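Now for one record:
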Amino acid sequence: MHHDSPEPTEFALLPASALSTGPSFRHRIEPIVEKFTDMKADLERQRATMIRLWTKREQQFRGVLDSTAGLYGDRASPVGRCRRSRAWSCR
């Protein structure tokens, strides 16, 4: 997916002083970064799913509109009725 700004790294989210505080701080930060990364991946998957569903619905909607417009056109045109069915009265 295209973004205007680069993705932050786990260290870009931390103040510079936090990077030099040792392993105990890192152990506390890693689960936070992991959860953030998981949430972001879930969000991207949900976005892709919704786009796919919306696209499908839009195609279905257009199909219904086209069919309805065609049906209306057939009913409004006496010539169209006569060509399709000889049983209809074509006056």
